[in-house]
Specification:
- The protein is α/β, with parallel strands linked by helices and 195 residues long.
- Strand 5, helix 3 and strand 6 form a beta-alpha-beta unit.
- It has one domain: P-loop containing nucleotide triphosphate hydrolases (Rossmann fold).
- Helix 2 packs parallel to helix 3.
- It has a seven-stranded mixed beta sheet, with helices on both faces.
- The chain is built from five helices and seven strands; from the N terminus they run E-E-H-E-E-H-E-H-E-H-E-H.
- The protein is 32% helix and 21% strand.
- Bound molecules: guanosine-5'-diphosphate (GDP).
- The site of guanosine-5'-diphosphate has 18 residues, from helix 1.
- InterPro entries: G_ENGB_dom (IPR030393), GTP-bd (IPR006073), GTP-bd_ribosome_bio_YsxC (IPR019987), P-loop_NTPase (IPR027417).
Amino acid sequence: LFAGEVTFLKGVVAMDGLPPDDRPEVCFAGRSNVGKSSLINALTGRKGLARASNTPGRTQEINFFTLAESHYLVDLPGYGFANAPVAIVEKWQRLLKQYLSGRASLRRAFVLVDARHGIKSVDEEIMTLLDRSAVTFQAVLTKTDKLKASELDKVLDQVRGKLAKHPAAYPELVLTSSEKGDGIPLLRAIIAGLA
Ligand code: GDP
């Protein structure tokens, strides 16, 4: 799947802009700065494909990429900006809710969690939304290269404990480092297996 072409399709700001749900789709969610763009770029092998969402003004766009003309990869806006205006946050939450609850072709959501920080309350909010929307999600730890094995073990305990409370959580975690390439082949294989 990832050996084929990856192309940017469109950025969507409202439900009527969504492409037809005619193929399997996976989405990526995570707090701003979690390493989502780096991960998508590592997965697709294309630097600069996903741009870091560094400003709250860009938080509303849902970006669609086509994988080998057979799947969609969806980059959801980063959440948890400290200074994002309330109106923007609300508009984004509405769109996110509509997207997650109404997308028949969505096979799995990957919720990115910074390995240094574990699951935060904003992550729990999106996980609860995924539970309610009955979208299976899988936690992906990012930046694992920044931790020692003992530190990582502690975070894994925290993450597993919190995931156990979410009915839509897929139990298997994916540990990644975009910097070192760890976990990238596994994540590609998981996505390719979601027909
Ligand atoms: P986004 O806002 O979630 O898209 O986050 P970015 O992909 O822009 O990454 C945020 C910061 O974390 C950047 O400075 C990246 O260089 C850094 N980063 C991302 N992934 C990794 C990783 O796997 N290891 C390390 N050490 N740093 C990373």
